[in-house]
Design brief:
Residues 62-112, 135-158 are annotated as: Disordered. This protein is of the alpha+beta class and 282 residues long. Among the domains are: 102-178; 193-278, Fusion Protein Consisting Of Minor Coat Protein, Glycine Rich Linker, Tola, And A His Tag, Chain: A, Domain 2, CATH 3.30.1150.10. The protein contains 6 helices and 4 strands; from the N terminus they run H-H-H-H-H-E-E-H-E-E.
């Protein structure tokens, strides 16, 4: 029986030695072994120092030729210092493009191009419209000039025809006066009140008078009108003035504008008539 157990003390297992202390000891021993191996190998590899000796012979030395004269020492040319190294600065690395900014620039550029294109098209249309308008005005002017020319030619022909008729009528009237003397009142055509009224009404319808009519009395103008058998007026003479020069001029312009004058029912006309023109209607 175990004496510890007999004495009443329980048996305890003795503790095992620590593992780290044995590990350290083993490493130290191995290190010393490696050091001795390395030192021994190096000691054996050292080459012995060689000792050289020269033997001089006096005779040989005396027979030897004299040494050459000393050569001038040639100093090497100084090596120029190397050029300074220039520091090449590397360009900064490009920044990554901003996609949103690039898109915005592209959008603005496109809008600008569209606006410029629209402006060019609008300018082109305006120039075309201007050319068309100028062409139209030129055509209208040419047509107007042509119409004016035709109207002048027509007016000149009409005036020439009237002049010829007037001359013919004057010749006939002069011939009748030379043959029969003064015209007899008995041979003069009877006055037709309706004919005079219609003739006077036409002339009054062409009177353009813008003056005042609030004048004392009733200014009256009387004109002697000479006409052709066709009713065309070939002349007029003021017999009585109304006293209002503006009204007299308006009556004269109306007489010219009313040619040809109305005829009688039978188609004849009186060579001279003297219608009365009153400023105020009664």
């Amino acid at each position: 029986m175990n004496p510890a157990a007999a004495g009443g003390v329980p048996y305890q297992v003795p503790p095992e030695p620590k593992a780290w202390s044995s590990t350290v000891l083993a490493l130290a021993v191995h290190g010393l072994l490696l050091f001795f191996l390395w030192f021994g190998i190096r000691w054996q590899n050292n080459a012995p120092v060689a000792v050289e000796a020269e033997v001089w012979d006096v005779k040989t030395e005396m027979a030897a030729p004299p040494p050459p004269p000393p050569q001038p020492e040639v100093k090497p040319e100084p090596t120029p210092p190397p050029p300074p190294v220039q520091k090449v600065e590397e360009p900064p690395a490009p920044k990554p493009p901003d996609i949103a900014l690039e898109r915005e620039k592209a959008r603005k550029l496109k809008e600008q191009q569209i606006a410029e294109q629209k402006l060019a098209e609008q300018k082109k249309r305006e120039e075309e419209l201007k050319k068309e308008e100028q062409k139209k005005l030129a055509e209208e002017k040419a047509a107007k000039d042509k119409a004016d020319k035709l109207a002048k030619e027509k007016k000149a022909a009409e005036e020439k025809r009237l002049a010829k008729l007037r001359d013919d009528e004057i010749k006939r009237f002069t011939a009748s006066l030379g043959a029969h003397g003064t015209a007899s009142k008995s041979t003069a055509p009877k006055s037709d009140s309706g004919y005079i009224a219609s003739l006077t009404a036409k002339i009054k319808g062409n009177i353009i008078y813008g003056g005042s009519r609030d004048l004392p009395g009733n200014p009256t103008a009387i004109y002697r009108i000479t006409q052709l058998p066709t009713g065309e007026v070939i002349g007029y003479k003021k017999i009585q003035s109304s006293g209002v020069p503006e009204y007299d001029r308006a009556v004269e312009q109306a007489i010219t504008a009313s040619s040809p004058l109305p005829k009688k029912k039978d188609g004849s006309v009186e060579r001279t008539i003297e219608p009365i023109f009153k400023l105020k209607e009664e």
